[in-house]
Amino acid sequence: MFPDAKMFAVGFDRFGPPEVLTVGGFPAPHAGPEEVRIAVRAAGVAPVDLALRAGTSPSSARLPLPHIPGVDAAGVIDEVGADVTGFAAGDEVFGAVDVSRLGGAAAEFAVLAFWAAKPPSMSWEEAGAAATSVETATRALDRLDVGAGRTLLVEGASGGVGSVAVQLAVARGARVIGTGRPENHAFIAGLGAVPVAYGPGLAERVRDLVPGGIDLALDVAGAGSLRDLITITGAPASVLTIADFTGPELGVGISRGELGGEPGGRHGLALAAALSSQGRFRVPVRAVFPMDRAAEAHAAAARGPRRGKVVLAAPPAHGEPVQGERG
Ligand SMILES: NC(=O)c1ccc[n+]([C@@H]2O[C@H](COP(=O)([O-])OP(=O)(O)OC[C@H]3O[C@@H](n4cnc5c(N)ncnc54)[C@H](OP(=O)(O)O)[C@@H]3O)[C@@H](O)[C@H]2O)c1
């Protein structure tokens, strides 16, 4: 896409369907203060990437085009910015780009604004898809003050953020109920939550399932169920959403993240890594595509049922697309 290209990257120069994604050459980025640059091994595909590419995100308007998508990545540090301590070239890490950049991960090199050491227990694909879900889930669980002795309902427990929120809440000692479509119930149970079907009648089903009641509810689905969640917990203040912008009308808080000036959950990455090492945390991955098939990856990520992340695997060397699909 640039004549003086220095690295291979996925990019788009107009908004639209997945087919607007192509691969080409881009100038390589460099690590600024408190940042590291990685040689990318894997980059997750998140809902925000799909919305930014389609032009339907409120933030699409401020994207300079062409744009490299992707907010989450894992790889090997090859450049360390000023004021970074405790990390050096050659370290294997996972993390996310600066939230204000809204992309840059689906490339041969990416600059991370926050990261943690990748434990050997985490595959590159898991690590590449982890950071934003872990940061978001940690921020939401902190804000709800989820801890031992509390019962938490996660609405949308099988998705990227939901599956991570369930595991991190269980690790905090909470009892967790997770909603999902029935074919996802075994998966949700495997994450450590008691599964229950979402949709009409949720409050009654939960009352039968948990006679002692639910203390807190986290909505990560944005499917319009906040009134049910208030009924289930008994108070709007006990409910938090990350995806339903009608929240304030009902007295329910929205966690918008660092762009909204909220304290972030970046500290969750090191905890997730430690839990992975203990066999208590995983990032479900449902498909891996080479970066030169990013359009197929975005199309797959848009299709339900969503149980695990879609991940882009990096090319092995400058400008050489990977051939063949895994997963
Ligand atoms: N505020 C923030 O900081 C922040 C950060 C990250 C993400 N988000 C937003 O949070 C949302 C979730 O992100 P994600 O990555 O977890 O998305 P995802 O992987 O697509 O997961 C969405 C989940 O919602 C479930 N779902 C679908 N219909 C439902 C219904 N009617 N009732 C209950 N659950 C339902 C899906 O289950 P099935 O597909 O199996 O039905 C799936 O588990 C997105 O809107 C994203 O943009 C916000």
Helix-strand pattern: EEEHEEEEHHEHEHEHEHEEHEHE
Q: Compute the average pLDDT.
A: 93
The total number of structural domains is 2
Cα-to-Cα separation, first versus last residue: 29 Å
Number of strands: 15
Q: Which term fits the overall shape?
A: globular
Please explain how this structure is put together.
The chain has 327 residues and is α/β, with parallel strands linked by helices. It folds into 2 domains: 7-130 and 283-313, Quinone Oxidoreductase, Chain A, domain 1 (Alpha-Beta Complex); 133-260, Quinone Oxidoreductase, Chain A, domain 1 (Alpha-Beta Complex). The protein has helices at residues 47-54, 124-128, 131-144, 160-171, 185-191, 202-209, 226-233, 268-277, 294-302; strands spanning 7-11, 22-26, 36-45, 72-80, 92-96, 109-112, 114-117, 151-155, 175-180, 194-197, 216-219, 239-241, 253-254, 285-290, 309-313. Strands 3, 4, 5, 6, 7, 14 and 15 form a 7-stranded mixed beta sheet that branches. Strands 10-9-8-11-12-13 form a 6-stranded parallel beta sheet, with helices on both faces. It has a two-stranded antiparallel sheet with strand order 1-2. α3 packs across α4 and α6 (202-209) runs parallel beside α7 (226-233). The longest helix is centred in the middle third of the chain and has 14 residues, at 131-144. The protein is globular, with a radius of gyration of 19 Å. 49% of the residues are buried. The site of NADP nicotinamide-adenine-dinucleotide phosphate has 32 residues, from α1, α3, α4 and β9.
